[in-house]
Specification:
Elements lengths: L9 E5 L12 E8 L2 E6 L3 E6 H7 L11 E4 L3 E10 L9 E3 L3 E4 L2 H9 L6 E11 L2 H6 L4 E5 L2 H5 L6 H8 L15
Parallel strand pairs: 5-9
Antiparallel strand pairs: 1-2, 1-10, 2-3, 3-9, 4-5, 6-8, 6-9, 7-8
Length: about 190
């Protein structure tokens, strides 16, 4: 039997015609997938007009050493809640390591560390997340909607947000321009 945590540490790419406009061209870094459900952070879209400095000021944190990086739309669930997907060289109280590839932190201590210049070497900030209940993502994976590719820190940290969807498909040898909206049956 296949492990139910198989998507942890991978990326989900929304297929054209997924049927939910919130996920058009979505790229989701899967941080957990087990029998209880799944959670991922959207990394394919930045929030227009919101940079890290503004977010830090809203949280009464001086931007300090932090670059004014874009803030990503992490997903439709709990959009006021912040998450940082980051390299494994930093860990806080609630940090979870994701399949030995990256880490996820969801408390303010990581933002304080980034602003102080003592945080992780590589990171991205997102508001909200994508979540699935028990068995929900497994069901979605059996229908048209999502395509998974191996987690690659290059796609996560070295590729611009607007290029991640195409780059994710290229990593699987697929030209995203050739993808159709319709699915067939065999």
């Amino acid at each position: 039997m296949e492990s139910t945590s198989r998507l942890t540490g991978q990326f989900l790419l929304a297929l054209p015609g997924i049927g939910d406009p919130r996920f058009e061209r979505a790229v989701i870094a899967m941080c957990a997938h087990d029998v209880e459900g799944a959670i991922g952070i959207g990394i394919g879209q930045e929030i227009d007009g919101l940079g890290l400095h503004e977010l830090l000021v809203q949280l009464d944190i001086s931007p300090g050493a932090a670059p004014d990086a874009p803030v990503h739309l992490g997903g439709p669930v709990d959009p006021q809640r912040g998450f940082v997907v980051h390299s494994l060289d930093w860990s806080g109280q609630d940090t979870i390591e994701v399949d030995g590839k990256w880490a996820l932190s969801g408390t303010i201590d990581v933002l304080r560390a980034i602003s102080a210049g003592t945080g992780p070497g590589r990171w991205l900030v997102a508001l909200g997340y994508a979540g699935w209940g028990a068995g929900q993502l497994d069901g979605e994976m059996s229908r048209h909607g999502w395509f998974n590719v191996p987690g690659d820190t290059g796609l996560l940290f070295d590729t611009e947000a607007e290029d991640r969807w195409d780059a994710g498909f290229r990593s699987a040898g697929i030209d995203s321009r050739m993808l159709g909206i319709e699915t067939g049956t065999a």
